[in-house]
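Data deposition worksheet. Section B asks for the primary sequence of the deposited chain exactly as it was used as input, without tags or linkers unless they were present during the calculation. Section C holds the resulting structure in token form. Section D is free text for depositor observations; keep each observation to a single sentence. Incomplete worksheets are returned to the depositor.
Section A, Depositor: J.P.
Section B:
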Amino acid sequence: MDATPSPSSSSAFDLVSSALGRYIPRGGAARDAGSADAQGDRGTRVPGDSAAGRQEQILGAVNLDRELLITRCNLDAPVFAGLDARVGRPFVDLLPPRDVPTVTRRLWQVLETGEAHVARIQRLRRGEGSELVVSMSILPAAEPEEGLTVSVIAMARRLHLYAAETAIGTSLDIGETAQSLAESLLAWGDVAAVDLDFAVWTGEGVTGQAKGRIRLRRAALVPDRAWPEGYVTPGDDLPSDASRLLAQAVLRDDAPQTIVIPDREAVERVLGSPRVVRALVPGDRSAGVACIPLVLDDTPPVVLGVAEVWRRADCPFRDSELFDLQELVARTAHHVDLARQHQREHTQVLALQRRLLPRTGGDTVEIASVYQPATPDSAGVGGDWVNSFPLPDGRTALVVGDVVGHGLGAAATMGQLSMEARALLSAGLAPDEVLEHLDETVSLLDDTESGLTAGYSALGSTCCIALYDPVGHQVTLSSAGHLPPVLISPDGRASPLAVRPHPGLGAEFALREPFDVHTFDAPPGCLLALYTDGLVEDPAVSIDEGIGRLADAVSTVHPWDTLQQAARHVVSALAPAHQRDDVTLLLARMIGYRKGDTATWRLPARYDAPARARAQVSALLRQWGTRDDTRDAVLVLVSELVTNAVCFATGPITVRLIRAGHGLLCEVGDTGNGRPRLRRGGPFDDAGRGLHVVHRLTTRWGVRWTDTGKVIWAEVAR
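Section C:
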């Protein structure tokens, strides 16, 4: 091409060019041999046999001005044949379109800063469309010259294999792993594809596959271009007969083997069906193909899929190239299996967390939740969870938690804590009492003898529990080291709740403190936002600023907005683009009971209390228009519960009636601390008969403990 370096010049271009003599043989015989190699190697990109093998690293240089136009070049080595690096052409014309923005940005960066950018693995595009893998360095021109010098080294076979394996092993996502493998395989052909067993995509085991029964799905395809109709692109399943043919081919004699089909005539003869040819053959020019199985070492070997490299029929695969292809695929098959195992764990944990998401909020509160798992190539799905469920006594529980760690250990702990919290809350325990039990559970799980001994610890996990009372329009809340919820009033003012910090679950005994109970007014129309740290944590800002951004985002939710859409909007506005932790948000819009749907009476614990309660309740039920049979059942129920309170408790008695959905909820509170139990008595036992009457008349009943005593609640269908 252009220019022989001047001996007196000391520019970067001249220094690189002067070194070419040590790598490029001069003289006719050597040049002729190189030209012959170049002709045979033009479609292969990686120097292969004899002559090319004696010069595995080939050096070239291109000089650019400040407009990134080529001013001089020295690409005389045969391996660079086909690169159109004429003086005056933009350097970016040598790049694949997908790389132009990134390389252009790096070129301008070196121009502006004067700092060299060394040894970037890059592809250069030949005139006929094939690509050459090089190691590219960008150097500033020496004074007084201006511009840049770009040095390129054609990748040696060993260096390319190392670089390819390094790139393939950087992600735990199956699609990205397959894409990296396909991009590396493109160095040996015009089109590269990776088709994986469907079981790999789902994370299932792939052992025990019967011969010829592999179901293949296309995982990656390069280069990126508009493909003809019917051609299989990433995400599509291969036709069943194509999958069967490839499976039979690579599993000849039950042993995985590489197969090569040299030309289009042989390809059509092997594939048979025109539909299969349209689905697999990328074009008329790329007619020859090498199919290399991705094999997992086992007994017997397990085929995870097939990698296909297509090239023109006039550039047949040499034995050395096939060895390189097999070595690369063999080196990277375990990365595909690691991605499969990660996908299986990811799917299992995700299914568990989806199972824990709230389904409905009941009649007194509207619920919306968003769970956004961490990116697939992160450490794994975390232990974040949210839950919301109506309690039998008419209240609604809102729970959010964040278990330390990722993966199956965190998922198991998350599931255990979530279910335990739900059971204890349904049994009538207060939020602080539930957290005390969860604290003990986390400590037991960390015990070396009875806990999780696989190197996982849940110490430091956090949890926040809020109970919404739809009658009193209040929220009772306790937190174990969790970030404070955000309360948005009906007029749009938003602020984090003043919750005292706590060390979290499973803290050392000396650090343990009582769990505080906070009570806040929550009038109808207000919003409560519970979340995990993945939504508000940002390395660039403080955690308080992140919570403030959440409050600002939630304050824009209008009362007429669909709550689920609003929750998604908040998450999309706040969640980081490349999140490394799960993002969880629970929005609860308080509705409560209307004033006319509830009534409360306070009665002294005297002998006439049952009669007074029946009279008050009977008048209200007539006002509500309740059916006679329902009214009779409620009057008997109230009489039995009030009589029990008079006999076994002291102090005033509280009677409350709530018209809720399709039922009537009756509550009788007293100052006693005894727990009523339904027992099977004898034929002459009088004690306990009242509870049997309550049990027969109601759809469900239970006990809720208060600071001053207890409340027995019972629901009657209406």
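Section D:
The longest strand covers residues 286-296.
Residues 1-9, 20-56 have pLDDT under 50 and may be disordered.
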